[in-house]
Amino acid sequence: MNRFAIDLYSDTLTRPTPAMREAIARAEVGDEQKREDPTVNRLQEMTAELLGHEAGLFLPSGTMCNLIAHCVWCRPGEEIIIEQSSHPVHFEGGGPAVGARVSLRALPSERGIFTADQVEAAVRPNDPHFPRSRLVCLENTHNMGGGTVWPLSAMQSVAEAARRHGLKLHLDGARLFNATIAGGYRPRDVGALFDSVWVDLTKGLGCPVGAVLTGARDFIEEARRYKQIFGGAMRQAGIVAAAGVYALEHHIERLAEDHANARRLANGLADIGGISIRPVEVETNIVMFDVAGIGMSRAEFFRRIEAEGVRMSGRLTPTGVRAVTHLDITQADVDRALQVVSDVVRG
Ligand SMILES: *Cc1c(COP(=O)(O)O)cnc(C)c1O
Q1: Rounded distance, CA 337 to CA 332, Å?
Q2: Whose CA is nearest to atom 5 of ligand 1?
Q3: Atom of ligand 1 at shortest distance to CA of 210?
Q4: What is the pLDDT of residues 108-144, one digit of tens each?
Q5: Quick check: CB of 202 below 6 Å from ligand 1?
Q6: Which atom of ligand 1 is nearest to the CA of 211?
Q7: What angle do CA 203, 180, 271 make, to 5 degrees?
Q8: pTM of the predicted protein model
């Protein structure tokens, strides 16, 4: 049981729905490591098909998708061009350095979105003093940017810049379907631009475990080797992959509801004095706001809303707050959360 009635901490907090649990219970399984689990195979094929890629690989987490992609594309000592508030920079325990032995060239950005010119300027000249530039990574939607959607044209120009310099392109698509629903483009439009893409099953899609990495067949074969190295190869993983198959069939279109709830939350927060927020910047299911002006610390704000059953999380700044809508949050929950915040802030 969740002790918070309205948990906006993250979209990772969803519990499988009754229908998803039924799909899990009915799953046909085999030995995934021997490629004999039919449900895992189906999930991989479905995801690859959606992205327009040749093959997919079911992995235990999105973090492992990023790490494995870094390992396949880069040799130790090479450099990845990436946005400075992106997931691998802050939330993967130094994985790029430990697991792939690469360095990160972290670019500043406009809410997670950087430009082709920035990529051009960051590419290293061929000189033994410098690490060798190898890979450009994007995050769409951009989490710490505030659930920002990369416009298709912006991804295209960054991809062109990367190609001009012979760099590979990897997409952290933890919330890619939030981006495609809000951005009005298809997953395969995105897949066409990148050498590797992954999507998380455990965010907006509402699954208990896993992520799927996609790319060309030879990339996925190499990724499978690292999956084994990192201990990510599983056995009857169809039990959890079944949730992924169910979610791809039933939980993509409904992300629009989470976006509407996030907008509702943002508009309501904008009416509460002391809270600083720009509702127009709320594009998907992530709401970022600031509590510097409410006359109490963020820690105190959290304590008081939590006492009323509402939980949110901090962002990278000391007074920044992030609230995330998801499958287990209804419009009524949003209205109740707004009431709680309003009562707490107005004292
Ligand atoms: C959650 C997340 C990850 C990591 O995924 P896990 O499945 O939690 O390991 C990577 N990138 C972004 C943008 C994320 O939001």
Answers
A1: 9
A2: 62
A3: 7
A4: 999 999 999 999 999 999 999 999 999 999 999 999 9
A5: yes
A6: 7
A7: 70
A8: 0.97
